[in-house]
Every structure is written in structure tokens, then in C-alpha cells.
Design brief:
Elements (H helix, E strand, L loop, with lengths): L4 H10 L34 H12 L9 H12 L20 H9 L16 H11 L3 H4 L4 H8 L11 H13 L18 H14 L8 E2 L5 H10 L7 H12 L5 E6 L11 E6 L2 H13 L4 E14 L10 E3 L5 E14 L2 H14 L19 E4 L6 E10 L5 E4 L1 E2 L4 H11 L4 E10 H7 L5
Antiparallel strand pairs: 1-4, 2-4, 2-9, 3-6, 3-7, 4-6, 5-6, 7-11, 8-9, 8-10, 8-11
Helix pairs in contact: 2-9, 3-4, 3-5, 5-8, 5-9, 7-8, 10-12
Keywords: Signal
InterPro entries: SLH_dom (IPR001119)
Protein name: SLH domain-containing protein
Length: about 450
């Protein structure tokens, strides 16, 4: 081969995850960034009732609307916490073992979220009962019960409630909800402990429980945050090559057999848990590109939540290309498997229209079409990769033949054209019959789709 190492690196790194395409052209899998993901959002951008409702319905098939009963809320909390009864005998005075509410009520009772044997599932949910259940479901009750009377009274003065009219623990739970933001300020006005809980409050409490338990969305900030670049830099600097020996043994063999041309490794602990219809993923290897991409979106009026997801990419480096550099493993034919650090930026847009607008922005400002092209952001690729779990106009569907290991948080992701997926899976199963593979179809931008068909530009 006459191509230089630099030219191959430029092409292959830019083409990142094109893993399991079955054709001879080598593909590259650039690297992964391992940041510490934290939820940090400006108050004005914080999710509210509409987002909580959408999340509950799309992720858990839970819909809390209209006048909600205590039983409905019990079922909802059991669903989002994914708790099940242990099988030990539990006897309620008003719920039979054959009743539909029994499993959820039993599970919450065993978790200490429900404390009495009278469930009263048919009763309309009141503010104070909803808040007590939420405080316990959020694992905050021990903190609540540390509150002395003076601290309770101080907190409850914000909602103009006299704690002495409530039981000690109920007053402590309500005070805790005020102090921690479990009960947001927009519900303070005219708050009545025994009043009927509104649909807005109940969905907010369910959302706050998810957030406190780490079950809601995970992201480093918003595109428009003043400190988003600090967070991005911190995430990038704390990243490194991901090592998953058990899974890599399988896919490295597949690389040697030319069953696949590359793969990526990701850490599921950084999964943002965004709403699929609003989420878009964008992969790259260059940090400055990420910085400029955030600025580009801001300049185009496209705000979104941002999660920085670690990724390590692997591809075959031919011996004739010369020194492969660090982070390589030599294989039997003298070639190398090279590992590179890359990242995915995950975005959750406010609307599907904003998500759809992303494509035109990348096409204009971040897709290379000529060797010496200007007016692009730094390190733009010939064939950028961005993708959606849901269908989008102007995108094409491919398959991630995702490999998982029950004993680790890592996933290996060899991509293929849909028509090649069965062959890839059969080949991987031949290497390790016990391997767990889940083919996941998703939609990629057309430049990357064309790359999978052999176009280098």
C-alpha cells in the first residue's frame, strides 16, 4: 500500500464506528472519553411537568392524569422503582392477595415506603400523602426524621402550614420536601396538606423521585449553559481507553477473521437515558471539534441537553503502514488492532423539529466535501456519524450487533448494514456460542450510510 499512516488515520478515525461492515475497506473506530457525568442545569432550563409526564409515559408506560387515586400512585412508584414483592406473607386490611394493587402495595410496604396495613387505594390522593410516599421512595426519610420541631416549623413557614396539625413524621417529611426541592416553589401558594393532589404535583413528585434515585436523565449540562465548556473539558480530561478483555477477545478474533472491520466499546453507566424521540448521538475523536460543535449549535439557536459518553474504537492497522503507535495488539498475520479514544455527544432537543434541524447544520458547517475546504469547524470529517434511535427523514437504517456481558457495564458495538447483520451474528456465535448479542436497528446520517457502502468521501 502506498497510502501514508497519516492519511489512513485521518480517514479511519473520522469514520469511527463503522464496525461490522462486510467489505474489504478498513474502517476506524476512534476513541472514547470517560467523563464523570453529573446533572448540572440552570434553574430556568430545568425539566418540569411536561418533561416528567413524557418521561414516565415513554420509559415506564405510566400515565398520571386527572384525579389520581392513592392506588394509582402506588402502582406508578412501584413501576418506576422496579420493585417486586419478595414472596413473604404480607396482610393488608383492605387489599386482598387477588387484587391488582396487591403486588405494588406489598413491594412498597416491604421497602418501607408504605407503613400501614390499611392501603386505602381507592381514595383520592392528597398532597401530604403523595409527599410522604415520595419522600420515602426517594430514600430521604432518615434525613426527614432528624428534623427537630424548630427546623420543621421554619421549613413549613414557607408554605404557611402549621406542623402541629400533622403527625410528627408527616410534618418532618413535608418539611424535608420543602427544603430539598422535592416540593418545588411553584406549589407553595395556597398549599393545603389535606387538599387533593393535582396532576401537576403528582407527576412532579414522581419525576423528583426518579432524579433523586439516579433514574432520570444524566447529562453534563445544556448547550446554552455559561459553564458548559468547563464541564466538557473536565469530562474529556478524565476519559481514557476502555478495557473490556472478555468482550474484546471475541471481537478481536472477528477482526482477525475479517468478519468485521472494527468496533467500539462503550460504558453503559454514561447512558443519558434521554427521550428517544428527542435524542441524537454524534461521534468524533477531536476535543476542539466538540467545543466548536457546542458553539455552532448555540449560534444556530439549537439548545439541548448534552451528555458526554465515553467510547473506545478499534480497527485493524496494517503492518505496511509503519509504526502503529501506542494502544495496539499485534495479531497473527503481523497486523495490529489499534485502539483509539473517542466520544459520543448525546443531545436531547426540546422538540423533534430541533432534532431534525441538526442534519442541515452539520451538512453546512461540519461535513468535509473538498480536500482544502474552508468555512468548516475544526477537524470536520468527510463522513461524519450521527444517529437516532427513532426514524428521521433523510436518514438510513443500519444495525448495531451489540454485544453485552452480564458481569460488566461495557458493550461492544459492531455496526453493519441490515442485510449483513445475520452473517455477522452467526460469525460471532461461531467464535463464542455463549455470547449475548442484541441486534438494534437505528438511523444514521446519509454520508455515513454511503460510507458503509464503500464510499470514502
Amino acid at each position: 500500500m502506498t497510502k501514508s499512516i497519516a492519511s489512513y488515520a485521518k480517514l479511519f478515525t473520522a469514520l469511527l464506528l463503522s464496525a461490522s461492515i462486510i467489505f474489504a475497506q478498513p474502517a476506524a473506530f476512534a476513541a472514547s472519553v470517560v467523563p464523570v457525568a453529573t446533572v448540572a442545569v440552570a434553574a430556568s432550563q430545568e425539566d418540569g411537568v411536561p418533561q416528567y409526564k413524557q418521561f414516565l409515559q415513554e420509559k415506564y408506560n405510566v400515565k398520571l392524569a386527572g384525579e389520581i387515586t392513592k392506588g394509582q400512585f402506588i402502582n406508578a412508584i412501584a413501576s418506576v422503582l422496579k420493585v417486586k414483592p419478595s414472596g413473604k406473607e404480607v396482610v393488608f386490611t383492605d387489599v386482598k392477595e387477588t387484587d391488582a394493587l396487591f403486588p405494588a402495595a406489598t413491594a412498597l410496604y416491604e421497602e418501607g415506603i408504605l407503613t400501614g396495613t390499611a392501603i386505602q387505594g381507592e381514595e383520592t390522593l392528597t398532597n401530604v400523602v403523595a409527599i410522604s410516599i415520595a419522600v420515602r421512595a426517594a430514600d430521604l426519610k432518615e434525613l426527614a426524621y432528624t428534623y427537630p420541631a424548630a427546623k420543621v416549623n421554619k421549613a413549613l413557614s414557607a408554605i404557611n402550614v402549621n406542623g402541629s396539625t400533622l403527625g410528627t413524621k408527616v410534618a418532618q417529611e413535608l418539611a424535608l420536601a420543602v427544603d430539598t426541592g422535592l416540593l418545588p416553589a411553584e406549589f407553595y401558594a395556597n398549599f393545603k396538606p389535606k387538599g387533593i393532589a393535582s396532576e401537576q404535583l403528582i407527576n412532579t413528585l414522581a419525576g423528583k423521585v426518579l432524579i433523586t434515585k439516579g433514574l432520570y436523565k444524566q447529562y453534563i449540562g445544556y448547550v446554552n449553559d455559561a459553564d458548559i465548556y468547563n464541564k466538557l473539558n473536565s469530562a474529556y480530561k478524565t476519559s481514557d481507553i476502555i478495557d473490556a478483555p472478555k468482550l474484546q477477545k471475541i471481537v478481536n478474533t472477528a477482526l482477525e477473521q475479517e468478519l468485521i472491520t472494527g468496533y467500539s466499546i462503550k460504558d453503559s453507566r454514561f447512558e443519558p437515558n434521554f427521550i428517544s424521540s428527542l435524542e441524537l448521538s454524534y461521534g468524533h475523536s477531536n476535543y476542539n471539534h466538540a467545543v466548536q460543535l457546542i458553539g455552532l449549535l448555540r449560534s444556530e439557536g439549537l439548545n439541548a441537553k448534552v451528555q458526554f459518553e465515553p467510547k473506545t474504537s478499534a480497527f485493524v492497522h496494517l503492518a505496511e503502514w509503519g509504526n502503529p503507535g501506542p494502544n495496539v495488539v499485534q495479531i497473527a498475520n503481523g497486523n495490529y488492532i489499534a485502539y483509539a479514544k473517542e466520544y459520543d455527544l448525546k443531545f436531547e432537543f426540546a422538540t423533534v423539529a430541533d432534532k431534525a434541524a441538526f442534519d442541515a447544520v452539520i451538512e453546512k458547517y461540519a461535513k468535509k466535501n473538498e480536500d482544502d475546504q474552508t468555512s468548516l469547524i475544526a477537524s470536520s470529517w468527510w463522513q461524519p456519524l450521527y444517529y437516532s434511535a427513532t426514524e428521521l427523514n433523510g436518514y438510513a437504517q443500519i444495525t448495531n450487533n451489540q454485544i453485552t456481558d452480564a458481569d460488566s457495564p461495557y458493550t461492544v458495538n459492531p455496526y453493519s448494514l441490515n442485510e449483513n447483520s445475520e452473517k455477522v451474528i452467526a460469525g460471532l456465535k461461531a467464535i463464542d456460542p455463549d455470547v449475548t448479542i442484541k441486534p438494534v436497528k437505528f438511523w444514521v446520517d446519509l454520508p455515513f450510510f454511503r460510507y458503509l457502502h464503500g464510499e470514502s468521501k
